[in-house]
Amino acid sequence: MLQTSRNRSVHLKRLIKSFGDSKGKQAAIYIEGTKTSQRIPTSDVDAEFRQESNFYWVTGCNEPDCAALVNIDDEQFVMLTPDLDDDHALWCGDFPLPEDYKTVLGANKVISNKPESLVKLVQELNIKKLYTLESKNDTLQNTLKDVTVDKSTLYGTLRDLRMIKLSDEIEEMKKICKVSADAHIQVMRHAKPNINEYQLEAVFRYYTSLQGATRLAYSVISAGDERGATLHYVNNNKVVKDGSLYLIDAGAEFPDSYYASDITRTYPINGKFTQKQKEIYEIVLKANKEVIASMKPGVQWVDMHRLADRIITQGLLDLNILKGDIEELIKNHVGGYFLPHGLGHAIGLDVHDPPNRDGSFKAINEPGIRYLRTHCELKEGVALTVEPGLYFVPRLLRKALADPVLSKFLNKEKLEQYFDFGGIRIEDDVVVTKDGVLVLTSDVPKEIDEMEAIIGKSQ
C-alpha cells in the first residue's frame, strides 16, 4: 500500500517557492529515489530498502525505483515509476498503480521511469534547465543533451529547507525519541557485570522493534571498558567487566517515516559510580546541561561547541589532570584532545541531516572543533544533537605528551592513570524553540542518582 508523509504537499510548495527566481525560465527540478539493489554485488539477495531522504522529503513516496520531476513554471508534479508485472506481484505483493500516485501523493501525471520517458517529458514541457542532485551513476547530462543540468543548487536548497522542522516533523521526532528513550532505560535495567556488548545491543533492538521502530537510524555503539573512547566503535562483541563504564549510542527510526533519534548514555555496568568515574561524568554532564540551557535563536552553534570545550577543560584543570592558566589552555586547544569531535549535528530524516554551511563557511582547523558538522545560527525549528564527551585516548594523549608546547599543560603522572578509563558521552536530541530548546530525549535518565536507581533492576 502506498504511504506518504503528512508534510509532502507543504514541503513541495516550500521547495518550489525557493526556486522563485527560476519561474518563467523553463526550469524544472528532477530528483531520484533509492533504487533496488543487492546486499552484495554477486548475490541475488535484495538489500533492505530505505528511501533516499531528500526524495522522501519532497515527494512523500516510500516506493523503490521512482523519480520525480517538478516543473517550476506551472508547478506540475510528475512521478516516474517502475514498470512492474504479475511476476513482481507474486514475489513482492501488490504494487501501487498510477492512480494511487495521483490520489495519495498528489501527482499530476505518472509515467514510466525510463530514460526515454524522461527525455520525452522534458521535450513536451520545453525544459531548458534541470536542477538535480549528484548521483554516483549519473548519466543525466548524456541523456538530456540539450538541457543544462545544475547539480549544485538543489542540494543547498534542500539542506536549508530540511534544517527547519515543521510542527508535524517535530511530532514525528518526539515519537521516535520516546521509543528509543524507553529502550535505553531497558538497556540500563539489563546491565550487569560480565554481560556481552552484543547482548545489550540486542536489548535495545528488541524494545524498539516491539514498539514498531524496526529499523536502526545508524549502527549501535555498545562499548564497555576502554572501548568507550573509540568514537564509532561498532564491533560490540566484548564482555563488559565489573567496575567498568559502559557507553551506548543508539537510536531507532520507524520504517514508514524515517525520522531519526540519536541518544548516548554512559554509566558503570555494575550500577555504582566510583569516585573517579563520578568526577569525569559530572564534567560532561555539566557541559551537556549548560549548552542546552544556553541554546536559543540567534546563538551560534560554534559558540556552543566552544562553551562545552571550556567546561571540559576547566573540569580537567580542577582535577589536576591539566595545569596552567585556563585561557592559555583554551588558546592552545588542549581541550580538543579530550573532546576530539564536534559538539553535535543536525538531525531529522537522516541521523546526520545535511550540514548547514553557507558560502562563508570555513573549516576551523583546531583539534575537536574541526569535526563540527554544522556551523549555523540557531533558529526556531532547528533540530540538533547535543553530545559533549570526555575521552582518554592513549594514542592522542601520547602525542600531546610528546609535544613541547602541549606537554607543559599536562600532568603526566595523573593523566596516565586514566589511560584505561575509556570515555564518557552524554547525548540528547533537541529542537530550538522561540525562547530556548525542547529536549526530545529527556525521558532517558542522565543524573547519577537516577541512573544508579535503575541500572541492573530488570525485575
UniProtKB/TrEMBL annotation:
Pfam families, sorted: AMP_N, Peptidase_M24
CDD domains: Prolidase
Domain Aminopeptidase P N-terminal: 6-141
A GO molecular function held by the record: manganese ion binding
Gene3D superfamilies to which the protein is assigned, alphabetical: Creatinase/methionine aminopeptidase superfamily, Creatinase/prolidase N-terminal domain
InterPro entries reported for this sequence: Aminopep_P_N, Creatin/AminoP/Spt16_N, Creatinase/aminopeptidase-like, Pept_M24, Peptidase_M24B_aminopep-P_CS, X-Pro_dipept-like
Coiled-coil spans in chain: none
SUPFAM superfamilies assigned to the protein according to its UniProt record, in alphabetical order: Creatinase/aminopeptidase, Creatinase/prolidase N-terminal domain
GO terms (BP aspect): proteolysis
Cofactor(s) the record lists: Mn(2+)
Keyword annotations of the record: Hydrolase, Manganese, Metal-binding
Family assignment from sequence similarity: Belongs to the peptidase M24B family.
Protein name: Xaa-Pro dipeptidase
Organism ancestry: Eukaryota, Discoba, Heterolobosea, Tetramitia, Eutetramitia
